[in-house]
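Write out this protein's structure.
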Amino acid sequence: MSGTPILDTIETAISDLIAGMLAADGYNYDWNIVNEPDETIGAFPRCVINPTDNFADKETCQDTTAGLGSGDYTNEVIYTLLAKGELPAFDSNPLFAIRSTLRMALDDLKMLFGKNRNLGGACDNILYIGSQIEPLGNNDGQRPAQLRTFWKVIYSQDRTTPTQYAGS
């Protein structure tokens, strides 16, 4: 049995969708930088999928012994998307201004996954769990905070060919 792990397929779908967001398509921003931790490369906003935190790749199975006998596992995994924005110019109250920028970035992510609820056929659903704006305390007037968002991905995985999505 060989193939791409299903979580890799899901993460690639998330990355490709985020990188394709454009203001011309109704989003607040053009997003094109995903999973590039070096902030000197590329523009803002940008997103890192599953930055080092406790939620990376924590997969749980939702099957029960009393459930329907099917040929798949129904799983969920929590993804953390860390969005970073930048103020275009000096602001006398940068923490207030960046919150507005990050809220617009959150609106973009909600719209993206609202339109792409199954990530192009990679999963059953992606669901918004919540978010928090985190001040960075770095004395950087252009990037004083970041946005950490949490998303639950529910997917069905074939029991005998685990790399294969088994749509429910």
